[in-house]
Amino acid sequence: MKSPRIVIVGAGFGGLQAAQSLANSGADVLLIDRHNYHTFVPLLYQVATSQLEPEYIAYPIRTILRRFSGKRHNGKPKVQFCMAEVERIDFTAQIVKTDDAAIAYDFLVMATGCQAQFLEVHGAAEYAFALKTLKQAVALRNQIISCFERASQETNRLRREQLLTFVIVGGGATGVEMAGALVEMLRGKLRQDYPTLDIEQVRLFLVQSGDRLLTELPQKLGVYTYKKLRQLGVKIYLQTKVSEVTPGSVHLQNHEVIPSATVIWTAGLEANSPETSEELATAKKGKLVVHPTLQVLEQPNVYAIGDLAYLEQNGKPLSGVAPEALQQGVAVARNIQKQLQGKAPKPFSYFNKGRLAIIGCHSGVGKIGNFTFTGCLAWLMWLGVHLVYLPGYRSRLLVLLTWLYTYLLGDRAVRLLLSM
Amino acid sequence: MKSPRIVIVGAGFGGLQAAQSLANSGADVLLIDRHNYHTFVPLLYQVATSQLEPEYIAYPIRTILRRFSGKRHNGKPKVQFCMAEVERIDFTAQIVKTDDAAIAYDFLVMATGCQAQFLEVHGAAEYAFALKTLKQAVALRNQIISCFERASQETNRLRREQLLTFVIVGGGATGVEMAGALVEMLRGKLRQDYPTLDIEQVRLFLVQSGDRLLTELPQKLGVYTYKKLRQLGVKIYLQTKVSEVTPGSVHLQNHEVIPSATVIWTAGLEANSPETSEELATAKKGKLVVHPTLQVLEQPNVYAIGDLAYLEQNGKPLSGVAPEALQQGVAVARNIQKQLQGKAPKPFSYFNKGRLAIIGCHSGVGKIGNFTFTGCLAWLMWLGVHLVYLPGYRSRLLVLLTWLYTYLLGDRAVRLLLSM
């Protein structure tokens, strides 16, 4: 009897976990992604600030799936990988159409994540730098280094200031960690690299539309973060929106114009939905509405997880962090196996182990249950938790060595203009 | 009194060494390169075969020059770096014109190295993969991985064979090490990554125009290398030239056509000469003819070193290896200082400490004086010497860890399709 075929689209945290959790389901599992590697997204900002090599956070999917390469009874490997771009999903025919083939499925897991959204701000998509993919992180790194290179040769004072002004739009975790990492970069050995440049001329701005930073965390943590970044020299604008981005400046809604060659966009995200034969119900940011079981409405054999799916818990939408996607990956695998056994899927409930956010310069914030904490402990915990979550011992060793190098020697080794 | 200005174009082995050796000359030293990093070229083939991260062999020039950032008596750093593309050199006005500025010099060192030359073979420049720059090494790595990805999904047998056939053109050190490294790659954990692919289907070809491999080394070493590679499964064509390269095949002058999606070009090099106001005398491969003092003919204050210069010793041209460029960098610094003191420059003489070439699979060849040796000792010596020559302790540690990982675990971690 032919094994049922489960297709998973997207090898982010959710999709990859689902594939691994389904390895012993007895079904044929096929994982599809447009890249042949999984990106450890939480450390993208460290690639962008020349701290980590891009390869340290990009894991060949085939290597991760290697332990499932043992054959099952029908001679096929338990989990297969296919590198392809998904063009369209036909729910009626139950086919995933890629740039290369038409793949039939019995069960489908959509885990294509999210991408930067520019909130219809004029010029943002063309001139601002997003930070959601590895390619974007490397482009941003090259931009930052390029600005220092050009500034060191620039005789025009205004132009030099523009090159040395960095504006981060968005005061969530990504914006905050970028700001802190840029401060760390400036405080390190950068001065010795640019002896003709006055590093004091560098200006960092953080523009947040809300009334505090880190709105997904309790207010006092947002206030701590604000004070810490101010102390580190970052100029913070709260309750301020961006109205336009040009190649050399950012315009705020309060009519202020900041000349800057580098505007870093962390302010908006939207779901990365593949094209489908029938339109699916969506919520905020284009995320797909799902049943508590993670099944897509009207399609009982199709699931959506991770940043692609809209889920609420205790009346609030989930934050969009890796542990949520990982738990959903496990849950969807369990639910599909229930369906294979003719049983009903169970609703998903996220077990919140806590939340951490890194600021930088030995500082961070955290919340576990009702207990909040700040400072060096939160900083170390953030680093430690992410070290543990990295796939594989090789990566953990290399990233740990790099962090020791950075934090003990104050140096960043990847100050390279290598384009991708 | 204004210090004399020495401009060095090109931060390869020769140019970078010259800059460091001139740091205490009392002159203003300016090093120019189109990239902000120095590439450790001998290990490019390991980037191409997914063994090393590109960043491990790309060193930020500013970091290397950091110890010269101390100021001299006129307030300027001893050695400055400028990232720019040199467009033209005007010998009469003594100006180096870049894409950004016009830089006056009192002394000039041209160290722009060499690039791949396609020997007027039809299609080679468009379809073959060269291996002289980091960008090319990464492109080749992506091509190799891409071929395995596509082959694992390819149902057409002929097309699959084409994807799994790799042809190396050129049987010098670079061609030999690429062939050996590809064999190492295939013998490693690749099978587990592609469980549906029959790795035995992979075919490796090495095409050499001369009558033996490694013509710059004694005949018996060439014979040993030939036998070793044949043992490893590489099909070698001696006294064979390529007549054409197409997107899917390589045509040999003996009328044989090998279907292959990946033709790796290591067969020809030519000097990378900048445009100059007066034409300079050139020898084979467009290399500039220089006096034994390394001064360019007719331009007593202009020097050419490294792969850009044509030099003979004992009636034979120098090979074009890193130690030659390093010694020339030291020599040119000494000669310029002599000129600054009103003395005559001295002729350069290369002190040949020996020559090593790596084959792979724990095998290599070497020659020190009249003594030749082969096998594991030569292999270990090659690795050891290159480890010592790497700039900086961080790089040495990371490369050493990677080699231990590869050779003890048989794995290659950088099997990523990340484009540059």
State the CATH class of the largest domain in chain A: Alpha Beta
Instruction: Output the CATH topology of the largest domain in chain A.
Output: FAD/NAD(P)-binding domain
Helix share bin of chain A: 25-40%
User: How is the main sheet of chain A built?
Assistant: 6 strands, mixed
**General shape of chain A:** globular
CATH architecture of the largest domain in chain A: 3-Layer(bba) Sandwich
Classify the secondary structure makeup of chain A into a structural class: alpha/beta
Number of helices of chain A: 12
- Integer tally of domains of chain A: 2
Distance between the termini of chain A: 46 Å
Task: Show the largest interface.
Answer: A-B, 46 and 46 residues
| Widest β-sheet, arrangement of strands of chain A | 5-2-1-9-23-22
Oligomer: homodimer
Total strand segments of chain A: 29
* Mean of residue pLDDT values of chain A: 93
- Fraction in beta strands of chain A: 25-35%
Low-confidence stretches of chain A: none
Radius of gyration of chain A, rounded?
Answer: 22 Å
Structure explained in plain terms:
Two copies of one chain form a homodimer. With 420 residues, chain A is of the alpha/beta class. Chain A has two domains: 5-42 and 58-115 and 270-340, 3-Layer(bba) Sandwich (FAD/NAD(P)-binding domain), CATH 3.50.50.60; 124-267 and 354-409, FAD/NAD(P)-binding domain, CATH 3.50.50. Chain A has a six-stranded mixed sheet, with helices on one face. Chain A has a five-stranded parallel sheet with strand order 11-18-12-13-14. In chain A, strand 25 and strand 26 (316-317) form a beta hairpin. The longest helix of chain A is centred in the middle third of the chain and has 20 residues, at 134-153. Chain A is globular, with a radius of gyration of 22 Å. The interface between A and B is large, with 46 and 46 residues.
